[in-house]
Amino acid sequence: TYKMPRNYLSGGRRLEGGAELQNAIKIVLAALTPGNALVTSISRSFEATADQAEPWYGTRFRSQASSMDRRRWEAARPAAGLGLQPPNPFVPRSLELKAPRAPRLARGVVPTPPEQRRLDDKWLVFFKQDTEFGVPRAYICVELLTAYPRSSARVAAIS
Q: What is the pLDDT of residues 82-91, one digit of tens each?
C-alpha cells in the first residue's frame, strides 16, 4: 500500500518527461514486433473448422500459425502523429492539499469571511479555503424558483 497521496495514482514509479520517458518508449516499441504478436480472430463462421475445446466451458476453437505476411509488418513504420497524449489538465499534478493547516482561532477572534468569486443574474458564489481540518469540503445551497410545487394540491403535498 502507498501511504503518500502522491503515489496513489502512479505507484512507486513514475516516468518523468525527457530522456527517461523516451528510453522507456523505445524499449517498449522494440519489444512490440510481429514475431512475438498474438493475432486472434473471432467469428462464428470459424466454428465449423474448430478442432479443439477448452476444458472449463467446452468452447470450441482452432489454433494455427498465422498466414499473414510478417515481412510487411516488419517493414511498416509508425503512423505520423503517433505518440503520447498531452497531459490531462483535470488530473492533478500533486495530491497534496493546497492550503496548509492553520491553528484554530482564539476565542473572540472573528474569522475572515469567504470571498465572493462570482455575482451575476444567475449565480452568487463564495469561496473560503479550509485550513482548520485539512479536508476538502463543499457546501451548496440551491433555490429553485418555480411555480410547479404550487401547481396543484397533490403536487404541493408531495413536494
A: 777 788 888 8
Check: pTM over 0.70? Answer yes or no: no
Residue type present at position 146: T
Closest by Cα among 66, 67, 70, 69 to 34: 70
Listed in sequence order, the DSSP H helices in 13-69 are 19-31
Grid cell, residue 148, equals 410547479
d(CA 54, CA 72): 32
Residues paired with residue 125 on neighbouring β-strands, in sequence order: 118
CA distances (Å), 6 to each of 17, 85, 130, in order?
17, 21, 20
| Cα distance between residue 126 and residue 114, in whole Å | 6
